[in-house]
Amino acid sequence: MSQPTDRELFWADAVARSLPAGVPHVIRDSKTPSGPVPISGLRGPVITDALYRAFREHGLAVRYVFTIDDYDPMDSQTMREQAGFAEHMGKPFANIPSPDPAVASDFARYHAGRFLATFDRIGIHPEELHWLRDLYRQGKLDRQIDLVLRHADVVRRIYAEVSNVRKDERWMPVWVICENCGRIGTTHATDYDGATVAYECRPDYVPWATGCGHRGRISPFGGNAKLPWNLQWCAMWDHFAVTYEEGGKDLLTSGGSRERSNELYRAIWKKEPPAGLVHEFVTIGGRKMSTSKGIGASAVELVDIYPGELVRFLMLRTHPKRAIEFDPAGMSLPRLVDEYDRCADAYLADPGSDLAKVWRLSQIAEPVAPIVHRVRLSLIADWLQIPSIDPVAEAAKRKKSPLTDAEARDLERRIALARVWLERWAPDEARHSVSTTLPPATAALSDPQRAFLERARDEIGRTADPEAMQERLYEIAKDLGLTNPDGRVSKAAFESIYLSIFGKPNGPRAAWLLVTLDQDFVAKRLEEAARAA
Length: 533
Ligand SMILES: [Zn+2]
Known about the structure:
Layout: H1 11-18, E1 25-31, H2 43-57, E2 62-68, H3 77-80, H4 107-121, E3 128-131, H5 132-137, H6 142-150, H7 152-163, E4 175-176, E5 187-190, E6 197-201, E7 215-218, E8 225-226, H8 229-240, E9 247-248, H9 249-252, H10 257-269, E10 278-279, E11 282-284, H11 299-305, H12 308-316, E12 324-326, H13 332-349, H14 354-361, H15 377-384, H16 391-399, H17 405-424, H18 447-459, H19 466-479, H20 491-501, H21 510-516, H22 519-531
Parallel strand pairs: 1-2, 2-3, 9-10, 11-12
Antiparallel strand pairs: 4-8, 5-6, 6-7
Helix pairs in contact: 1-2, 4-11, 7-10, 8-10, 13-14, 15-17, 18-19, 18-20, 18-22, 19-21
């Protein structure tokens, strides 16, 4: 099926089409290694990677640059409250000790390393990775720092105009690392003479760190200082010739960081800032999330549990302009997998459809070919709860031929995921365990239900085909008048089977249970239930 021409383009294609062809493009993304990254922190990188792929597909010459902003000061309130961290508040992340020296040499490398490890798992591969400490210390941003300091008056004016931030007239837009205490967030710099700045490490300069009071004069180059955030952003755009950079809504709102950076870039660098869409927030769990059962808040944990494709899909199935609300509890995960499968079907039917594109951009590796014979996660979860079931054999039975290697691998991954789901998030309706004794609830069965169970018992062993069994159960129910006014079989019929086996009114498909469970066991159980007092 081809798409009507006036139809709205898929978002990634629309962005790709909006960029000029025939010129080199650079797409940039960045991360400040300030601690464990929440799940929401994956949305930006996944969108950027999807755009990078879309740009290439549209024939654009594009380079993908990722920077680790590890020269930023530690300003996190949660860290401040942790034992031993108060003394590091205000220091650059690169200069703070590692939480685990066996894993990484410093705080920034520790947290950036954990985050970057998730990239591999979800198929994100920037072509270039740069650490800001290296760029500053190697003097690669000296030219940018000099340019900014020579335009300090412009910076002060734009800060005031765009975001109503007023700085005193002597203030120089650079953050010096205090030679006495090592803090970068607490210093107030003045008086640039082309080679050095004066600075004072003020005790009350910022609320999240206390400066030591030291005064000095130092070269702002070669790693002794960094640019304030908005200006560092501009320096990155210029240094890497960035043409595209998307970002989260919090940064890109009116008067916010991005708008300020755009104005600074136009005024000081005399260049147009890169284009970039704004993505909405991600809320995970909402109020209902319980920390003991929840997935926690961390990206590392999500990627540990969910297959990479599903993580990408979670972030891409919703248009970047719409908020994602995801609660891993309850039926969310089986529904997410169902939706993922629906998009795989769309890909098989028409690779040009929007759903197909979401599925394809969710893949870790190319070339892609969806598995045709898949088993729903909720069904696998049912299978896993019946000890006599071998899921691989059951899947082959459904397919009516042995599974291919790819199908078997897909099934294995789904089995692993279903196990975690059952253990952590499945609601009570999805949990079934075969009761070893006759459930007391069977005492309340009605006479027609008892009659239904007796006749169902007579069918046990006559067929191994769930479809044939289902057919018989319908006939018997109708025969006994277990029907609704519209003539359809009433819920009461199948409830009697679930109550007999699980002691609760719901479960996996009844006919399937009757042909799958041990035949002697199930026949005996139905008989007992039919006569329960
Ligand atoms: Zn100091």
